[in-house]
Amino acid sequence: MKLYAVKYKEGYLKDSPQGPAGVTLDKASVYKEKNSKELEGLMKKSVEEGFKEVHLVELTITIKPAQ
User: Fold this and answer.
1) pLDDT at 67
2) Which residues partner with 3 through β-bridges?
3) Which pLDDT belongs to residue 61?
4) What pLDDT, on a 0 to 100 scale, did the predictor assign at position 66?
5) Is residue 38 part of a domain?
6) CA–CA separation, 49 vs 67, rounded Å?
7) φ, ψ for residue 31, nearest 5 deg
8) Number of structural domains the chain divides into
9) C-alpha to C-alpha distance for 34 and 2, rounded to whole angstroms
10) In this structure, what are the phi and psi dihedrals at residue 22, rounded to the nearest 5 degrees?
11) Is the residue at 66 inside a domain?
């Protein structure tokens, strides 16, 4: 399974009603689809608001049996 988040120079981004906010990975907005409108909107807004070095991050989830 793959999920997607947005990273910038100093951390990760969370989409909020007030606009993009810098957070740690455990608080970041995560999306199922790489081409979702919400993800694209977050990336665009973050660049417009001055976040530096904005990148799409692909997170790979590996499911392993419980022991």
Assistant:
1) 84
2) 59
3) 94
4) 93
5) yes
6) 46
7) -125, 150
8) 1
9) 9
10) -75, 130
11) no
What region, left, alpha or beta, does residue 37 occupy, with left being phi > 0 and alpha being psi -120 to 50 degrees? alpha
pTM of whole model > 0.85?
yes
The 3-class SS string of 6-52 reads EEECCEEEECCCCCCEEECHHHCCCECCCCCHHHHHHHHHHHHCCCC
C-alpha span between 40 and 43 (Å, rounded): 5
Please, is 67 exposed, middle or buried when counting C-beta atoms within 10 Å of its C-beta (0-12, 13-18, 19+)?
exposed
- Please write the tens of the pLDDT for every residue from 4-47: 999 999 999 999 999 999 999 999 999 999 999 999 999 999 99
User: What tokens does 8 get?
Assistant: 């910038």
Q: Domain limits at 6?
A: 2-60
Please name the residues in contact with 48: beta carbons below 8 A apart, sequence gap of 6 or more: none
Query: Whose structure tokens read 């499911």?
Result: 63
Residue at 65 is within a domain? no
